[in-house]
Amino acid sequence: MEIGTIGAGDFAQAFAKRALKAGHKVKLSNSRGPDSLREIVDQLGPGAMAATKEEAAACEMVLLAVPWDNVPETLASLPKWKNQILIDGTNPFHGQAGNFTPAAVGNLSTSQLVAALAPGARVVKALNNMTVPNFGADPVVNGARRVAFISADDDGAKKRVETLLKAFGYSVVDLGNLRDGGLIQQAGGPLAGRDFLERGES
Length: 202
Ligand SMILES: NC(=O)c1ccc[n+]([C@@H]2O[C@H](COP(=O)([O-])OP(=O)(O)OC[C@H]3O[C@@H](n4cnc5c(N)ncnc54)[C@H](OP(=O)(O)O)[C@@H]3O)[C@@H](O)[C@H]2O)c1
Known about the structure:
single chain, alpha/beta, Rossmann fold, ten-stranded mixed beta sheet, two-stranded antiparallel ribbon, 24% strand
């Protein structure tokens, strides 16, 4: 399948490596356009493509991987969603990677906010609690599988993302809907940044 990324920074590139390894094609996009992504896609290798945001968002599955402060303007800049699955990998921090401060979101499930800003998209919260070094490392550690968490209101979309993440090599744990699961897995919640391993088949 072709998977789009909105954002092409550290997190999106770690995602792209996993997706390419699992046999998918990845269209990466950012705010500056495809020409700024040539070196990145060359490094990622065959199957990685530099795209516009519109091209990336048109894929059947799309990763949202922009800084939290940029989420509203980014989603507002995209064409209408037509039932694509939108994997929300964002976390509520102000600032850029390396210089984060937690954003005050109260008791809000930030993926519900993402869903409200992306009507027509089937939003699945996933991978946000995985740090880039862990994402880049082998999903299997001493025979145990790294755990990836997912939450969504759309069961069909959640199942599709579960299948993708299992193909990446992860053990997948379903945390329920966007409200309850989102609060558990987003930054500020109990799972944020943690690295869990599961032994045995998943
Ligand atoms: N780093 C991690 O360990 C990690 C782990 C899990 C989740 N996350 C989450 O993933 C998101 C991205 O983190 P990151 O570490 O990858 O950040 P990053 O390295 O700073 O990359 C951010 C990317 O977002 C793009 N971007 C910004 N505004 C945009 C817009 N309006 N339209 C399209 N693209 C836009 C940037 O493109 P330009 O360069 O063109 O502006 C850049 O490619 C954050 O929400 C973060 O919380 C990060």
